[in-house]
Design goal:
Layout lengths: L2 H7 L6 H14 L3 E5 L5 E4 L1 H7 L17 H17 L3 E8 L5 E12 L5 E10 L1 H23 L3 E6 L2 E5 L1 H7 L26 E2 L11 E6 L5 E13 L2 E10 L1 H44 L8 H27 L7 E3 L1 H13 L6 E6 L7 E3 L1 H19 L4 E12 L13 E10 L11 E3 L12 H14 L3 E7 L3 E9 L13 H21 L1
Parallel strand pairs: 8-10, 13-15
Antiparallel strand pairs: 1-2, 1-5, 3-4, 4-5, 6-7, 6-11, 9-10, 10-11, 12-14, 15-16, 16-19, 17-18, 18-19
Helix pairs in contact: 7-8, 9-10, 10-11
Length: about 525
């Protein structure tokens, strides 16, 4: 139907009853509230829909009846705006609330326009009021959800970043600590490029619940913090609605410590495999050496003692015994069980450690060994005692840098008497094996002359971390029933002594026996040492 047809179908301008009937019909059947007012803004008509919407009685009081249904909190502002609009003969548009007789509130949107004939002043107003309560409740629910989201995100220990259009919309406290620990201001509203490199958040798989994708594949990325620290970060991204707009949320988890632990576990597995291999090789070599030594011992009685062949076979026996000691050491380190204590010849272990250390020392450090012979065995975990030797040598080497000097290693059997303990050590009387590592470093001052130092306070060049290493040494030695002491002397350097309880051979004399018996025991030890030196 064209506009001309519609105009022809309408009653003529002189047919006022017909026009009134059309208007009343449209007003009564409309799904929105409709009201009419005079030029001063007094209501002269309102339809049934508006009456039910505002809770106005069927016989409203004449005048500003729809204004009487306003909620008390909105009344003064809406009345003022409506009066100003009617005084200026302009349109009116506002959102407000009706409070109905039962106390319920309805949010509405009101619009009113002046009624003007051609060339004539305004003869009143026609207004329309729509119920927007469902929409307003939806917005309130959305804002409540966003408030809960912000509260939960702020308390989360996981870093959360929300961004849209290359702009950061939200970054929780955990995210600030992870990505911008030195930032003093909020990063919300800043460009994404100010905080993250372009490739960090690029091409992340997105989860979209609206499309049925509830989760996305985590992606690992490296992040360089402003302080230069590198972090391994796991990222999970998803599409969300934030402040009524589509955005991307990224959950970031710092997995640096986890990856370091995994790398350490992998290295431990490799070392276990190497230890197993070394143990297997040692067993095979031990079988070969047993045959060599056995047949050599059988051949010696058949040879003339002064012959050249007899001397050659003797050298074979001696070399086989040295190889047997090496195989024994390999078996100690190649065992699978950790923390199991067993008799350990510290002199053999220390000699092998020094043999390896000699090739690694700088040219300006001279190594001196004082290992007179076989010492008493000790009950220990070979791997941990090996760590003690390595850490003490590393400690002395650091103390001698960069000028160099003399590094001296000594191993002795020590007997602490119950009557006079000249070392003033927190140990019970008895037999001990003493490992001494000395250096000629010049780090002590005059007032520290002959001052006894705890292992965590040894003087070392700035920037070193040997205190932690010596703390580990102290722990291992304590677990083995011994003690550690460090002494510094001006002009002479630092000496670290490690005392470990010795295992005496069966039938050895106790510390409480007479001096004659003790002297006899020392003589027997000397003979034992001489025999071991002869074997070597």
């Amino acid at each position: 139907m064209s506009a001309q047809d519609l105009a022809a179908a309408f009653p003529s301008s002189g047919d006022f009853p017909s026009i009134e009937a059309v208007v009343r019909t449209l007003s009564g059947q409309a799904s929105i509230g409709i009201f009419l007012s005079d030029p001063e803004g007094h209501t002269v008509y309102l339809n049934e829909r508006l009456r039910r919407m505002a809770g106005i009685p069927n016989t409203p009081a004449p005048g500003a009846c729809w204004l009487t249904a306003l909620a008390p909190e909105d009344h003064d502002a809406i009345v003022t705006d409506w009066s100003t609009a009617t005084e200026q003969a302009r349109s009116f548009s506002r959102e407000f609330r009706f409070q109905r007789p039962d106390g319920s509130l309805r949010w509405v949107m009101a619009e009113a326009f002046p009624l003007r004939a051609e060339g004539a002043p305004s003869s009143g107003y026609v207004g329309m009021i729509r119920d927007i309560t469902p929409r307003h409740m939806a917005f309130e629910a959305l804002h409540a959800c966003e408030d809960r989201y912000r509260n939960l995100a702020a308390l989360s220990q996981q870093a959360i970043v929300v961004y849209a259009d290359e702009t950061i919309l939200f970054l929780n406290d955990a995210g600030t600590r992870l990505f911008a620990p030195s930032s003093q201001s909020s990063l919300e509203g800043h460009p994404l490029s100010e905080c993250f490199p372009k490739e960090f958040l690029q091409d992340l798989p997105l989860a979209n619940p609206a499309q049925g994708t509830e989760s996305s594949t985590p992606v690992e990325r490296q992040y360089l913090r402003p302080d230069g620290t590198k972090l391994d970060v796991e990222l999970v991204a998803s599409q969300v609605i934030f402040d009524g707009h589509s955005a991307i949320q990224v959950l970031a988890t710092d997995i640096t410590a986890h990856k370091d632990a995994a790398a350490q576990l992998s290295r431990a597995h490799k070392m276990t495999a190497v230890a197993t291999l070394a143990g297997g090789i040692a067993h095979e070599l031990n079988n070969c050496l047993t045959a060599i030594m056995g047949f050599s011992d059988l051949a010696l009685p058949l040879l003339v003692p002064d012959s050249r062949v007899y001397g050659h076979v003797q050298q074979v026996v001696l070399a086989s015994k040295r190889a047997r000691d090496l195989v024994t050491q390999m078996l100690m380190f190649g065992r699978q069980a950790e923390g199991i204590k067993q008799p350990v010849s510290l002199d053999i272990l220390l000699k092998e450690t020094l043999r390896i250390a000699k090739g690694k020392l700088p040219d300006n450090i001279s190594l001196r060994e004082w290992i007179p012979g076989a010492t008493h065995p000790i009950s220990a975990d070979p791997t941990q005692i090996h760590q003690v030797c390595v850490k003490l040598l590393a400690h002395a080497e650091l103390a001698l840098k960069p000028d160099g000097g003399i590094l001296e290693v000594r191993l002795d059997n020590i007997h602490l008497n119950p009557s006079a303990n000249e070392h003033d050590l927190p140990l019970p009387p008895g037999h001990y094996v003493c490992l001494t590592v000395s250096d000629t470093g010049e780090e002590v001052s005059a007032q520290d002359h002959r001052r006894k130092l705890g292992p965590l306070f040894a003087n070392l060049p700035a920037g070193t971390h040997a205190g932690t290493a010596l703390a580990g040494v102290q722990r291992i030695v304590s677990e083995h029933g011994g003690t550690l002491r460090s002494t510094s002397t001006v002009g002479q350097g630092t000496t670290i002594e490690v005392y470990l309880p010795a295992i005496l051979p069966p039938g050895s004399m106790s510390a409480a026996e007479s001096p004659r018996a003790e002297a006899s025991d020392i003589t027997g030890q000397k003979e034992f040492l001489a025999e071991r030196d002869k074997e070597r």
